Amino acid sequence: MLVCEAVHALSLRGTPATVNAIAHEIGIDQSGASRLIKSGAAAGCLVMAASAADGRRREASLTSAGRSMLDQAHRWQEDIFVQLTTGWSDKKRRDFQQAMTDLMERSYAMDA
Fold it and tell me: Residue 1 and residue 86: Cα distance in Å, rounded?
């Protein structure tokens, strides 16, 4: 799940999901990321292929099964968020989600 989420997040930012990029996204070393990628591929959630931009580089991408798993996980996360914020107004929920999104985007900008 962790490596699939990393591949998804990288793709949303237009960053190639190389082993090094995934390792950095997760905060682990390259060998650990490589093992997670292999496990994700063995589970049918990821595929590694040559980069369209640079055939020497390999990039991970989500399979249909990987996208389905992430969709289910994201729905579960949204359900839990609703439970945790019971009693909050819709505006308070939206404001909180926007603040968290802003923090994540700033953290990506600081990384660059």
Answer: 27
Neighbours of 43 (CB within 10 A): 15
Transcribe 19-41 into DSSP letters: HHHHHHHHTS-HHHHHHHHHHHH
The stretches of the chain forming alpha helices (DSSP H) are 2-12, 19-26, 30-42, 64-84, 90-111
Cα 87 to Cα 6, 7, 21: the distances in Å are 32, 34, 39
* Helix/strand/coil for 48: strand
DSSP H or E stretch at residue 13: none
pLDDT tens per residue across span 49-92: 998 888 888 999 999 999 999 999 999 999 999 999 999 999 99
